[in-house]
Amino acid sequence: MRIRATVAAVSGALALSAVAVPAAQAGDSPSYSKADVQKAVQAVQSASGKSAFAAAAEGEPYALDLSFSGVKINNGKPIVAGIANQVTVPVTYTVTHAADIDLDASDFLMDVEIYRGASYAEVDKTLFGDDWPTCTATSSTTATCKGTIDVYPDFELVNADAGTWKAGGYAIDLNGEDPTSEDVDWSKVGYAEQDGLGSTKLQRYSKLTVNASPEPVTKGKTITVTGKLSRANWETHKYAGYATQSVKLQFRKKTSSTYTTVKTIKSNSTGNLSTTVTASADGYFRYSFAGTTTTPAVNAAGDFVDVR
After folding, report:
1. pLDDT 10s digits, 179-226
2. Of 23, 69, 129, 202, which has the most beta carbons under 10 Å away?
3. Which secondary-structure segment (H or E) carries 43?
């Protein structure tokens, strides 16, 4: 299992700067600490801007012939996290590589992760999977890979993290070199990093309630419909009202399966909702919220009103 780190210490690559080699991929090879593997990242960064990593002779990594494509996070859907429970979503992609690269080697590390920041080389925060991806070869130079993004809202997230995250990928081939050794030859270590692999939204789980009263009610009389729109607060680890949001009041007759919008109102400063309608027929009232970039859409369960 990988060691989690919510903020990259050096760069977006960068869960490399925040992980140890997991037993599942490392076999009998040694487990490298965060500080050990970070040396490889720093070596890569120091070679940045030098054509084709020409600085290999100076003991810096060479450019690994590997690229990522077709990245899909959570099947194209937003990642939605509540206040406590771990959220795990799938990540799939294709890797194209030189024929002499062994993706199954015990000292080969590769992953696609999501980040916030200016670029994959300048991240503010990364999120990645607890376990390394598994890949299936489709030819001598291509493979389809499956991994995860694991999110822990109880300690990883703050409210400002809600929104769009970008995806980046990296691969490092140690080729038998031990990054814990003072004699490591970085020129034998291959490294690839790729930005612009896509994006996903990370959203705060939302809740919506409704209550229509009185029940029963005489036809032509007033029905008061109340409710509340709330969403996860990743800092207090409670649900808090979502203020000044447009919410639709919808109704469906007892004999129908379709809701129609009656009116649109806004939640108040604490997320509460309240409006009135005239009783006309037996049926269900619900509130419906279309969602925002930071918060998913949600419908309240219908509340039945008996009109007499």
Report:
1. 777 787 888 989 999 999 999 999 999 999 999 999 999 999 999 999
2. 202
3. helix 34-46
